[in-house]
Predict the 3D structure of the following.
Amino acid sequence: MIYLDSAATTFLKPPSVCRAVGKAMQTCASPGRGGYPAAQAAERTVYQTRAMAAELFDCAPEDVCFTSCATEGLNIAIRTLVRPGDRVVISGLEHNAVTRPLHNLDAAVVPVRAPLFAGKAWAEAFSEAVTPETACVVCTQVSNVFGAVLPIEEIAALCAGRGVALIVDASQAAGLLPVRLRAWQAAFVAMPGHKGLFGPQGTGLLLCGRMPEPLRFGGTGSQSASQAMPEFLPDRLEAGTANVPGIAGLGAGLEYVRSLDHTRVLAAERRMLRRAAEDLRRLGSEVWTGPDQAGVLSFRIPGVDPVEAAARFAARGIALRAGLHCAPLAHQTAGTFPDGTIRASVSSMTQPEDLLALVRTAKQLYF
């Protein structure tokens, strides 16, 4: 299989990730639930992963809370900051993990729109939209549909200057682009463990610049006599039994990410995507690409339903994703709603030959 769906999950993992999961299942019990060796091994594993994440993402270890995915983290962040009727400014590229919680809270959502791959225009649009009445800004760092990188530093500075809380969805950025909780003065930054951090599915991180309101209530191994959740992190968000094998695998993924030269990885990914975009466009495909793009390339074949096309690619051994990518707002912004696009997404493990095979198969099937 030629795997080009890393924006959904990095199916290709470093071997160390699988080894770490297996070792944890054989050696670790539950952290904070005993003083015997297996519980202590779990505590060390969890803390080491937490500390590594803090080092990578510009925060203290206690600011790093483990979640099951970015969606859980975004739900916690949004429910902490937003009340029904609040005015919330979001980018016009947000995932349903942002828009559905806001809809459920009946927030007054203001989507900001600008041309794809036009960072200055996005910064100006946010500047116009963020008013004193704004309760919160929620912004993706990289579009999961088009790979467009938003000017998160400028947006963060804008929010800090106007005293508006910021939530960043770093789902497509973590592990590839800088993520800085303190420097951004963000309220929260959410990310999955299973994408650019190369951890297992069922893992995620929420970086907390503010004290969050928990979604789950239960045992934490601390302050057990109290019926209220602890008022300190990370215990406040980590009720229940920790996913120690998943966290161990995430730790191995973070070690792999830390070993990479991110400037070289990003440059290599952009070269591959630019070459594929040029080749697909030359064949006659409609392609969405630009100078500031990370990890993702969307395209359409004229007259062909994207989902049908992806199925035909899959029959030839090429894994893509098609449709609306759980981000209908992004497709409305780009004018690709309701049919969506075909998405090819890469990681540091993707080879140039994988994109060449995509182009070659597109030519064989449609051109």
Notes: The first helix runs from residue 15 to 27. The two ends are 22 Å apart (CA to CA).
